[in-house]
């Protein structure tokens, strides 16, 4: 929810995806613990983007037809 408040505004119709990842700046612990957590978040982001690209490659622009646009 808070992340969506910081999203840029685009004039006209736009689609906004909100993928909730942990905030790396809030990770506590020693350096190794922080690095492990940041790497985990990085890997989650990579998987999400790869899934998005795979879906786009399969469905093309049709994938956006089932998403409610933001006016």
Provide a descriptive summary of the structure in words.
Helices cover about 45% and strands about 0% of the residues. The protein has about 70 residues and is mainly α. The relative contact order is 0.15. The mean pLDDT is about 80.
**Overall average residue pLDDT:** 82
SS content category: mainly alpha
Unreliable runs: none
- The separation of the N and C termini measures 18 Å
DSSP helical segment count: 2
Secondary-structure element pattern, one letter each: HH
Radius of gyration, in angstroms, nearest whole number: 16 Å
Shape estimate: flat
Percent range for helical residues? Answer: 40-55%
Which properties best describe this structure?
71 residues; mainly alpha; 2 helices; 46% helix; flat
Map the helices and strands.
Elements: H1 2-5, H2 31-59
Provide a compact summary of the structure.
Helix content is 46%, strand content 0%. The chain has 71 residues and is mainly α.
